[in-house]
Amino acid sequence: MLCYQDPALAGGGGAKIGHRNPGTHTMNRFRYATSQIAVHWLAAALIVFLLVTGTFVLAEMPNTADKTGNFRMHMILGALAAVLVVVRVLLRRVKPRPPAVVAEKWAHLGHMGLNVLVLLLAMSGVALSLQSGVLAAVLGSAPLPESLDGWTLRKVHGLLTRLLMALVAVHVLAALYHQWVVKDGLLLRMRPGKHQA
Fold it and tell me: Is residue 51's pLDDT more than 60?
């Protein structure tokens, strides 16, 4: 069942239209486009992977030559995550949006926060790798620095990581709350299915 707002009223707070059991054609109106769904879940999986491996694997490894490959992979995937976030933002501008659900304003702020944090993490990571010499080590022109702990950008990168972890947790809990407590069918908007590309 799906609870939504009349799109004509959404700009003024929107009136809740109750629960419905729409057919396949009608359900397409409530979902994002296939391209948006694919980018969303790919970016989500990549971001979670980077947060977990960066915090619990990469940060715990000593800065020896064996770590160079891990740094390289982290940097490549981090850049890819940033690109996917930009693509996602662009798709939201060119693709029609489904009718708004309750608390759409809060959802918009949450998504904006996630996007900004991912981009800031990518930028701080690039800046840190350039300043500390990690990029030179990854390219094979220098050894890894003994430690990154003394770099201010390392602390900034770590703080942004914790903030993103917290916001991701809130995002997931909010989605589950809407799906299982409010029961407004929020997750249906991002469920893969046969609808427009």
Answer: yes
